[in-house]
Specification:
Blueprint lengths: L1 H23 L8 E2 L12 E7 L4 H17 L3 E7 L7 H12 L3 H13 L8 H10 L4 H8 L4 H14 L7 E4 L3 E3 L1 H4 L5 H23 L1
Parallel strand pairs: 2-3
Antiparallel strand pairs: 1-5, 2-4, 4-5
Helix pairs in contact: 2-9, 3-4
């Protein structure tokens, strides 16, 4: 019995050591990947962080509160950007909604509300008219919204999102790009764990990569 207890304690110590080393030094090729072709950034001494996400995605919705908190904690260390992925005709209205809100300067105010509309109120937002009805009910000026929605620059934003997905090899979402060089996600960081643990692991990886990129910018 005493020998079994000793083995059990040794195993626990090994797990604790592994967790600590992971938090300090995430492993390339597993917890994160290096992009084969690093992408240019325009954020100076601050580290660019891009999230690729989709409003319909339940994993993006679950990750959002922790990601928001992480961004606030990073403060001036980073410049945070979002890109709504393209994923077929039924997702296009949601993607266009995102870029319209962004162009109108309303994204901070309505981003979580769109998530809640889909995942709490179970609205589909899978057509233009569903989106127009939603924005009208949420106090957004319909005429100004439609003007931006139909603007000349909107197709260019959608094409740019597609090009970025190709450049950053986006194959899942949420996916985070750090400094145009490294990508990670909850499923990269700890793929077989419960979702909350995967999210926390991803945030630890992100902390490490931001620190690495910031140190290299000095």
């Amino acid at each position: 019995m005493r020998a079994l207890r000793r083995l059990f304690c040794i195993a626990l110590l090994g797990l604790a050591a592994g967790a600590g080393s992971f938090a300090a030094e995430p492993q390339p090729g597993s917890q994160y990947l290096a992009l084969p072709s690093p992408q240019p950034t325009d954020t100076g001494k601050r580290v660019e962080v891009i999230e690729f996400f989709a409003y319909y995605c339940p994993h993006c919705y679950a990750f959002e509160p922790k990601l928001e908190s992480w961004v606030r904690q990073q403060g001036d260390n980073i410049v945070f950007k979002r890109v709504h992925v393209s994923a077929g005709a039924r997702v296009l209205p949601q993607q266009r909604l995102f870029f319209t809100l962004e162009a109108m300067g309303l994204l901070d105010q309505y981003h979580q509300k769109v998530f809640d509309a889909m995942h709490v109120q179970h609205l589909r937002l899978a057509s233009d008219e569903e989106v127009f009805d939603w924005i009208a009910k949420n106090g957004i000026d319909r005429a100004k919204f439609l003007e931006t929605w139909r603007s000349f620059g909107m197709p260019a934003k959608l094409r740019r999102a597609d090009a970025m997905m190709d450049s950053y090899a986006v194959d899942r979402w949420p996916m985070i790009v750090i400094d145009g060089r490294w990508v990670t996600s909850p499923s990269h960081a700890m793929g077989e764990a419960p979702e909350a643990q995967r999210q926390q692991a991803a945030l630890q990886v992100m902390d490490s990569l931001v620190a690495k990129a910031k140190a290299e910018k000095k």
